[in-house]
Specification:
7 helices; mainly alpha
Length: 180
């Protein structure tokens, strides 16, 4: 099968069946890209998630672009990016066209209220899985907790957190290589 068409279809399917944004897509992306297609390894996926989070832009688009680029350079990146973005575009377009007809419908409002807890779970599960794969333990769990509290309670910009974490990670890598 053509890798461009296969990657487009894979990411289109991921894009159409995911509610809750990029983080909710992580389990589906992992299942398709790591487990089924084996386009990237689990370790590569963890690295791609970290890089996609650090880059400006939409997380799901970033990760799709990186995976596509790894597969087939620029054309692969285009195929996966369009595959990821197209379902959301089409859904939002349909909603925009028909919004005035169902905006006050109590059944639609109830459906969205019912979806909210599921979306929270879809975001929470990959977060815990990422923490486990990142080898968080009782000695390192304080790092994401302090970062989250700094952002939430103190209003620290996430950009500063990312920059500080990048610099600290660089120096930690330099120090830990000397110990080996």
């Amino acid at each position: 099968m053509n890798i461009y068409w296969d990657s487009f279809k894979t990411f289109f399917k991921i894009g159409i069946f995911t509610l809750g944004g990029g983080y909710a897509m992580i389990p589906l992306i992992e299942e398709e890209v790591v487990n089924k297609k084996q386009w990237v390894s689990k370790d590569e996926m963890l690295d791609l998630i970290a890089v996609a989070q650090s880059c400006p832009g939409v997380f799901a688009i970033n990760i799709a672009t990186f995976i596509g680029y790894k597969l087939k350079k620029e054309r692969g990146a285009i195929a996966t990016t369009v595959g990821t973005a197209l379902p959301s575009f089409l859904i939002i377009l349909a909603i925009a066209i028909f919004f005035s007809q169902f905006k006050d419908n109590p059944y639609i409002a109830a459906i969205f209220r019912g979806i909210r807890p599921a979306v929270v779970a879809l975001i929470a599960v990959p977060t815990f899985n990422l923490g486990r794969r990142a080898k968080l333990n009782r000695y390192t769990i304080w790092i994401p907790v302090v970062c989250a509290l700094a952002i939430w309670a103190l209003g620290v910009s996430p950009i500063y957190i990312i920059l500080i974490a990048g610099v600290a990670g660089y120096f930690y890598g330099k120090v830990s290589k000397k110990d080996i």
